[in-house]
Amino acid sequence: MTNSKKEFLRGGRAITPILIGIMPFSVVFGYAMKNAGLTGIQSSFFALSLLAGASQLAAVQLYAAHTPAFIIIVTALVINLRYAMYSLSLQPILKQRSFVKRLFAAFIMSDQSYAFTMSEGENNPGNRFLPSFFLGASLVLYCSWQAGIFLGYNLGTIIPERLSLDFAIPLVFMSLLIPHLKGRDRQISALAGAVAAVILVPRFPLQSGLLISIFIGIGSGMAYRTFQETWMRDNR
Hints:
With about 240 residues, this protein is mainly alpha-helical. It is built from 12 helices and no strands. The radius of gyration is 19 Å and the shape is globular.
């Protein structure tokens, strides 16, 4: 077995434990699409053409509320702007790949596969087969996500209405975030972004508060790092 295949399989195995949080969320999403009035063909196309749980769920909720299509599209785009930042940090890893492969990587990327790949890059900076690791993690999550949606759409009626499973996705994001809060700048960034989100998201339309909170978090972390480097340089 080649090193590329080994890394592909290792990426798939690495992300498998978090599926316990992903699968309930995808089942809820599948059931939500059925409740919103989407047909089987419509829900299948929507699920297969986009891998972005938060924006997908927001779009379905807006569709069920008979929101204009323009608002739905803008909301999905705003929520997914974080992927632009992901792409910038993945560029050094995938820059040697062909355009088609980079395009496929952009399509298959998820928050979780991105986080696991960047963590692997930090722990093993000399890993030349990191793109294969990323692809393995991304495909396992993508297939699992689609399977959960299928089950939720077709078998969602067996889930008691009083049992809310949408709490699972915040737990997944927390499990990804906490191991990476080792530096003070990262801790400040996460705290500033969280506080800003709590204050701004309910007050700004079209999820724009979330986007502003992201920039506040990033800016806070960068500002602290710059201050720290300047202070250390001046006190040598």
